[in-house]
Amino acid sequence: MSDRANLKAAADLIRQAGSVALACHVGPDGDALGSMLAFGLAARDAGKEVAASFGSPYSVPGNLGFLPTELLVPPEDFPAEPELMVVFDAGSAERLAELGSNASKAEKLIVVDHHATNEGFGDVSLIDPSAAATGELVHDLLVELGWEATPEIAQCLLTALVTDTGRFQYASTSPRTLRLAADLVAAGANPSQVSRHVYEQAPFGYLKAAGAALSRAHLERDKGVVSTTITEADLTEAGIGWGDIDNLIDIIRLAAEADVAVLAKLHEDGRVKVSLRSRGDTDVGALAAGMGGGGHRLAAGFTSEEPPEKVLAEVHRRIEGYR
Ligand code: 5GP
Ligand code: MN
Fold first, then answer.
1. H/E segment holding residue 139
2. CATH number of the domain at 204-322, please?
């Protein structure tokens, strides 16, 4: 459960505000976007003026386009000095990219998150690393506020739970997670719609780009690491974008010989975005933190400007230190 005192303090700030500006982490996933939009819809229903956004690149991943996105505004239209800003699923202010500056100018800032590494960077922090998804904490907050979860809100929260638990399969899935999912379905969420959009379909080009990345996959048996790269050229050739390959790491990590899966996404501008997953023996969150990123123990990432070969070699070199 979220800290009760903080829940109450957050609810008090929210009740007092006429407008709320909401942000989630860059490159939003189902938990970031689902949590933010769920809260945004509930705040709108409660009569607040709502703007929601995330830092550049401002593009909703294709498989999350089914969520109600009408509250979203591009980061340049986000209130410069919000009366009250609420931040979702971001372990630190850096994860907000350019909206970090709006957060620093907000009159009041509430942070809602479940990253163990989050030290809290707002006036009130609702941080619970035992929550499987930030969506669980948003639910606690809505209950505290007495705001009802409409079917649309329930759908956003179910998306948050489903995506951050890998469809209720990761170790973070608790009785509380499953009970909340049941309550959300009872409130009108549609599980088959979530899985259809998030997991059961992708543009045809995804098959091509995944094929290119899989054909380059490399297994280091002795270290238990499987790794590969995907380039912006792979995506362009396949006619898809970075927002279409969020599930690619889930194919890479199938390699039973590996505890750790590494996917390096090579951007045209030279940035290398690395996704890391562990089956359980390696703390990839700490590894990613050491490389300037962060995340959870078993799912993490970081961005580097170094040459990709160097970045991957460094990850391989460090892995044994995190077992
Ligand atoms: P993904 O590999 O799906 O992009 O990210 C997995 C998880 O790692 C995210 O939910 C987030 O917690 C974390 N993460 C990914 N990239 C970064 C990053 O650049 N910085 C930080 N702090 N966390 C990241
Ligand atoms: Mn999350």
1. helix 134-145
2. 3.10.310.30
User: Is residue 293 in contact with ligand 1, taking CB distance under 6 Å?
Assistant: yes
Is 299 a pocket residue for ligand 1 (Cβ < 6 Å)?
yes
Ligand whose nearest atom lies closest to the CA of 137 = 2
Q: How far is CA 37 from CA 30, 164, 314, in A?
A: 10, 16, 37
Query: For 112-134, how does the pLDDT look when each residue is reduced to its tens digit (9 = 90+)?
Result: 999 999 999 999 999 999 999 99
Mutate to test the pocket of ligand 1, among 275, 283, 298 (most ligand atoms within 8 A of CB): 275
pLDDT in tens, 76-124: 999 999 999 999 999 999 999 999 999 999 999 999 999 999 999 999 9
Indicate which residue's Cα is closest to atom 19 of ligand 1: 302
SS3 151: helix
Q: Is 121 in the pocket of ligand 1 (CB under 6 A)?
A: no
pTM of the model: 0.96
Distance (angstroms) between ligand 1 centre and the Cα of 12 equals: 31
Ligand 1 atom closest to residue 292's alpha carbon, by position in its atom list:
20
- Residue 67, CA atoms < 13 Å, CB-side half-sphere: 32
Task: Give the Cα separation of 214 and 218 in Å (integer).
Answer: 9
Please report, for residues 70, 165, 187, 225, 282, the alpha-carbon distance to residue 254 in angstroms, rounded to integers and kept in the order given. 36, 16, 34, 11, 16
Measured CA to CA in angstroms, residue 266 lies from 191, 228, 241, 256 at distances of 33, 11, 12, 25
Domain boundaries, the chain: 4-198, 204-322
Domain range 4-198, CATH architecture? Alpha-Beta Complex (3.90)
For ligand 1, say whether the CB of 61 is within 6 Å of any of its atoms: no
Strand order through the sheet with 84-88: 49-54, 19-24, 84-88, 108-113, 124-127
Ligand closest to Cα of 299 equals: 1
* Rounded Cα distance, 145 and 85, in Å: 16
